[in-house]
Amino acid sequence: MTPSRELRVFYSTAYSPPSQPSLQRLELAARLLERRGLGRLQAPQAIGRAALHGLHSEAYLQAFFDGVEPLASSQGLPWSPALRDASLAMLGGQLEGAQHALHSGIAMNLARGFHHAVHARGSGFCALNGLALLAHAMPERRIAVLDCDEHGGNGTEEFAARLDNLYAVSVFGTRFGCYGGTRSWAFPVRVREQGFGSYLQALRQGIEIIAGSRPDLLVYQAGVDCHGDDPKNQAGLSTRELFQRDLFVFKAAGLLQLPVLFLVGGGYQRARRVAQLNLNTIVAAHTALGLSRRSAG
Fold first, then answer.
1. Are 160 and 166 in contact (CB under 8 A)?
2. Is 46 helix (H, G, I), strand (E, B) or coil?
3. Of 84, 173, 180, 234, which one is least surrounded by beta carbons within 10 A?
């Protein structure tokens, strides 16, 4: 597996409709990376309901597609057609990004996380579980998720017990119902109390577990809500430590010759600040894997 010389970034303006302020950071990050020549944007096709059949319950899918409350808003954000369509567009980016990564070695979906959505409902600002979707859509492939969001991936953990080709490792500051289970491993770390070395040790253990699962694809959720200035953080990583985290993961993927699809996950500081932290993750991918930049314009 030879990494691509250029990073393909799956994103469309449908990800960040004007009616959803919490998603505007994705548009900011897209424009920043484009100006700096850090990747080539590609708009994916949104998925349809048929692609989700069997992943989530039919009762929940009907509620989410048709706006039937209270299930439609169970992720914690008021349901709207724009929010539904943004979720479906991001899931399209997951599937197309995974295929590109399997072919070329690396891809990015410039989407927030999906990891709290469970089979029967949404949760934690996650309407549909786009991490589990990859295992659901590609039953012949082993999918390993390394989730480094502030919050543990409880939804992905539930799906790992349902899908025997899905493996989930979470390194987090806030447990959010993630305790480890069938094909799922949980590593709570608080850097302020335990030091960054403890976080790196959790990453090493997680990578060893992933390597042992012999996956076809690594999905890396590079959340930045674990940054020390984020209002929701408990993990307490500095900007430099987040960059070192990302470098560690991308270098490990390179050494293991694992195709990697990465996405940005959570972040609750000001939109421009979160977008810049997301950009640092992209820079780490370039640094670790020797990707090429595009000339501006």
1. yes
2. coil
3. 180
Joined together, the tokens standing for residue 229 give 């200035």
Segment 216-225, tens digit of pLDDT: 999 999 999 9
State whether residue 211 is helix, strand or coil. helix
pTM of the model: 0.94
On the question of pLDDT at 293 being above 90, the answer is no
**Which CATH superfamily, name and number, covers 8-289?**
Histone deacetylase domain (3.40.800.20)
Query: Domain spans of the chain?
Result: 8-289
pLDDT above 90: percentage of residues in the chain: 94
Dump pLDDT digits (tens) for 35-72. 999 999 999 999 999 999 999 999 999 999 999 999 99
Return the exposure string of 263-281: e unless at least 16 CB atoms fall within 10 Å of the residue's CB, then b: bbbbbbbebebbbbbbbeb
Do 109 and 10 touch, CB atoms closer than 8 A?
yes
DSSP 3-state assignment of 151?
strand
